[in-house]
Amino acid sequence: MSENDQVTALNLPPLSPLPEKTQKYFDICQEKLGMVPNVLVAHAFNIDKLNAFTALYNETMLADSGLSKLEREMIAVVVSSVNKCFYCLTAHGQAVRELSGDPILGEMLVMNYRVADLSARQRAMLDFAEKITIESHRIEESDRADLRSVGFSDQDIWDIANVAAFFNMSNRVASAIDMRPNDAYHAQSR
To answer: What is the total count of domains within the chain?
Structure first.
């Protein structure tokens, strides 16, 4: 699929022209990333939806947190792996490769995080994120205690839960509308 192809299976083209603030945001993405991520393009048919998505993404993934950017990306990949979300596995797998400097780690998390050489902290975090994804109704105090035992604060547990929940939602939307990742992600940080 080339960058000019439709980014989802839905016929919802971006507004044209984009509002000035949105165009400026897309221009910054193009400058910093070399592309406008297709997830943003997919939302651009409705600026209110785009703004809501980006505000939640930015708060969840970029705001101050006891979780590093890499840890949040690792959660995104593990959740997306469980959900088999092609878009998020591609985009966030690339982010793990870039942030960790380790292309093998990115691939391991995409395929099966249990084969990766992870710290006890990372393993507990990813086990919790996976449990949220597969069986959130089975989360118990012992699960939160496991996170505290490896150094996570209650605020960190909140953040882990929110990152996992955000990607569970995003994965389902991306899969339902056949959202396609930008071609550029596949070759980056390898």
So the answer is: 2
Task: Indicate the pLDDT class of residue 2, thresholds 50, 70 and 90.
Answer: very low
Decide: 90 and 188 in contact? Cβ < 8 Å.
no
Cα–Cα distance, 182 to 27 (Å, whole number): 16
Which residues span the domain enclosing 84?
Answer: 69-176
Which of 170, 18, 189, 184 has the alpha carbon at shortest distance from 88? 170
190 part of a folded domain: no
Q: Which of 182, 180, 187, 166 is nearest to 36 (CA)?
A: 182
- CATH code at 53? 1.20.5.810
Which of the four pLDDT bands, split at 50, 70 and 90, describes residue 119? very high
Query: What is the Cα 146 distance to its own chain's centre?
Result: 24
Q: What is the dihedral of CA 23, 29, 31, 35, to 10 degrees?
A: -100
Q: What is the pLDDT of residues 39-84, one digit of tens each?
A: 999 999 999 999 999 999 999 999 999 999 999 999 999 999 999 9
Provide φ and ψ at 92, rounded to 5°.
Answer: -85, -25
Whole-model pTM: value is: 0.94
Residue 81 lies in a domain: yes
